[in-house]
Amino acid sequence: MTTTAKMVVDYIGTQMRLSGRTQLLKLLYYTQAWSLAWDGEPLFHDRIEAWEQGPVVVDAYYRRSPQGPALTPEQQATIDAVIDHYGRFYGKQLSDLTHEEHPWKVAWDARPDHASNRGQEEISLRDMRREYTRQSMAGRGPRRLAQGVKHLSDDEVRCTVERNAERWAEALALLAG
User: Fold this and answer.
1) 19-74, pLDDT tens digit by residue?
2) How many CA atoms lie within 13 A of 24 on its CB side?
3) CA nearest 122: which of 51, 63, 177?
């Protein structure tokens, strides 16, 4: 069964008390972003558009019906890591944060001058994967623990990131180019 944005929304709702729809929609966006960075593939296949208030998964904005708990432990770990990192921010703070990041800016700037505040420009999964992989390699953003892996100290994480950055610098430069 394919995971949908609505399934992720339902799971987020069971894990935290939400401050509103904007917070939920931005957390949903970040679950997709970090899934792309960590796993190289989308968590769900619903379209994400650049709206004035930031990225919006259109299906989740207009329709919020329960879909059942068919998420894998790995998917839940991704969502939990995003909630742990971003869940303390209100919707407006998350919206402002997405406005500072490349994927929303590119899609928002691509809309025609006469377009409404609810742009129909899709945010590219490729741009999301690049942006959040860069953030991850720089040690920014959430940390997701693999299933069955011990928690690493900040120093252990920093050393691992530095070793991997050196090891993969050339390959990452080619991919980012």
Assistant:
1) 999 999 999 999 999 999 999 999 999 999 999 989 999 888 876 555 555 788 88
2) 24
3) 51
Q: Are 114 and 170 in contact (CB under 8 A)?
A: no
The answer to whether residue 150 scores a pLDDT higher than 60 is no
Distance between CA atoms of residues 76 and 68, nearest Å: 13
Q: Give the C-alpha separation, 155 to 174, whole Å.
A: 28
Token pair 């991850």 is found at 136
- Residue 115's CB is within 10 A of a number of other CB atoms, namely 13
Please give the Cα distance from 91 to 56 (Å, whole number). 12
In this prediction the pTM is 0.72
